[in-house]
What does this fold into?
Amino acid sequence: MAGSLTQYWKKRDFGVTAEPKGEVARTAGKLAFVVQKHAASRLHYDFRLELDGTLKSWAVPKGPSFDPKVKRMAVHVEDHPLSYGGFEGVIPKGQYGAGTVIVWDRGEWVPLADPAKGYRAGRLKFELRGEKLRGRWTLVRMKAREGERQEPWLLIKENDEEARTAADYDVTEALPDSVLAGTSTAKKSGAAKLATAAKSKPAKAAEAKAPPAKRAAAKAKARALGPPGPPPGARKAALPIAFAPQLATLVDEPAASGDWIYEVKFDGYRLLARIDGDDVRLFTRNGNDWTSRMKPLRDEIASLGLASGWIDGEIVVMNDAGNPDFQALQGAFDSARTRDIVFFAFDLPHFDGYDLTAVPLVERRRLLEAALTGHRTQHVRFSEAFDAPVADLLEGACRKGLEGLIGKRAQAPYSCARNTAWIKLKCTRRQEFVIAGYTDPKGSRKGFGSLLLGVHDAAG
It folds into this structure.
């Protein structure tokens, strides 16, 4: 039986990674499933089903979909121990699967036919009873193409009362966070044993390896929240392994009333910095770890001396006129010249052992500005808000050649989703056209010459 974990063990150095070594361990009662969101070289979702004492595992690049018409590729990978189902953490660089792992969903799975027979035959039908995934699903093996080293499967949602169209609902965007973070309202299922099993001796030993000197240094760097202490709404909380950013809604006009602040809309890439003592990691809005691509920026953020937190912001490259230049930013990555990248920090949802997401925006920004004061570097800057009528601000931004403005409700909490507490006002105008036809190419052009466009008038 131990042979089913041989490949898992061979790929990992358990003296370096905190992943549990585990063992084949049959459990009585209900079967558990877990889905882990894994920001490795590419973000993907590891879908795991308990069977025969291990977790049968598939890597699903785009994550599960509730739409029966959407068939998700699921690449069959090595079995994992049951204890892996409760693992969250950062797999170190140089180790197999290096990157951040969170428990995105967990629960029970109920086979609708003999699971061992179905697994061997390449067709598993089952019901999921998770905190996010529910209803009937199918995993089906496809015929591998010549040269493929891993079996390609498909993960498909069946038509039932839980099914929803992709246009109506994307579960990975709607519910991006860990179910171990204490935010889920669903009851814990039989898969709670996975979280308990993850605290095996190997995992505990790995956690204990953190050098005391490093922990002491992190505490010494801690910056106090300042009198009179943490603001109302702050709560003591462990630093999340992963974090999904709040997104803004595009609008045509600014809000007519309410207390709003307005910042420049930067033409760049959204970036979140996770700081845990000397360990600083940089993540895109989709959860991809880009730390290795921006080492100079990582070092500058580390030099701020913050103990822990998540800083939300945008990275840009400035042109000669002092404006963000998106093409220059893309070129910086293409040429590996990332020293010119500037990080504009605009929010602080976690800081120094506190969850600040329920704290009003103006208080979060006050703390962020205080944390950066005296420590701002050439490439880490605070995103200023402007005190002027929004119409004047937008006109000035457009005249200066900026992309527009971001408006935020001053008293709003931080929400890890898209909503209207944050709005974006763009200088560029959009128009929908009907493509009626095209002309033949001329000269060196190939394909077609020009498009013939039409636009709907007021009468349709």
